[in-house]
Design goal:
233 residues, alpha/beta, Rossmann fold, 7-stranded parallel β-sheet, 40% helix, binds guanosine-5'-triphosphate, binds magnesium ion
Length: 233
């Protein structure tokens, strides 16, 4: 199973890759980790590192680009190397950059999916410390639905950092949106329907990539997607 880890900047993708791969290894699985972020050296041991081919800081200098432009250019250069970066393992966990526009506006994600063999799934990691208002919540859920649509693979939406913050209750968010008035409130009510295109209505998964709380839930949800027989299939 290939697990593509996607999420906003600082949501915990790399920490998840590090600790969830250890979790799977402790269960006895052969696990490979892949760093597809040209801007960050991996915090886990891996020989499958995009930075062997392209480093964002060098691209920045070479093409006289800013941080974001250099990342987009690096990813473009790296596309041709992706197939060399996929290990042969039972679980392949693929860490990606936090610039969401790579997944929302470019075909980077699709190209990654096309380079993979076997069953692929995406974990969309939500930084729960940043979804305290209904507006933030709806915005991130809409992003996760668009990522799922663009990658065209099953996508599990997971709330991270449950060790330091309350995870929002979906019905409570809907209730708060229903109480608001005006044009924007109407827009939010329409946008909340995006939730239906994520796995959230079936199961809200809370986890901590630091403490590994909720990893059992993530693991069983992934396997349900794989078997296509669980309640989120
Ligand atoms: N308390 C807490 N902190 C976390 C958790 N997951 C990640 N962090 C912290 O959040 C920060 C960002 O974590 P990363 O794993 O680097 O996040 P990322 O999504 O890979 O970040 P980018 O690659 O920059 O987009 C680090 O300081 C982590 O220690 C969590 O579950 N709980
Ligand atoms: Mg990272």
């Amino acid at each position: 199973m290939n697990i593509i880890v996607v999420g906003t900047a600082g949501s915990g993708k790399s920490t998840f890759t590090l600790n969830f791969s250890d979790y799977l290894r402790r269960k006895g699985y052969l696990v490979g980790t892949v760093n597809l972020d040209p801007a960050s050296p991996p915090i886990y041991q891996t020989e499958w590192d995009i930075r062997k081919f392209v480093k964002a800081e060098e691209v920045m200098e070479q093409f006289n680009l800013g941080v974001n432009g250099a990342l987009l250019k690096s990813v473009e250069i790296a596309q041709q190397h992706i197939t060399k970066l996929i290990p042969d393992a039972e679980y392949v966990i693929i860490d990606t950059p936090g610039q969401m526009e790579l997944f929302l506006y470019s075909n980077f994600g699709e190209n990654v999916v096309e380079s993979l063999n076997g069953f692929s799934t995406c974990i969309f990691i939500v930084d729960s410390t940043r979804v305290s208002t209904p507006e933030n919540f709806i915005s991130i859920i809409a992003q996760s639905a668009v990522v799922s649509l663009r990658l065209s693979i099953p996508t599990l939406t997971v709330f991270n950092k449950c060790d330091i913050t309350e995870i929002p209750d979906l019905n409570e968010v809907k209730r708060r949106i229903g109480e608001e008035e005006g044009v924007l409130a109407e827009l939010m009510e329409k946008l909340v329907e995006f939730v239906e295109y994520t796995t959230l209505p079936y199961r809200l998964i809370r986890m901590s990539s630091i403490t590994s709380a909720g990893f059992d839930d993530v693991f069983s949800a992934l396997n349900e997607l794989f078997c296509a027989c669980g309640d989120i299939s």
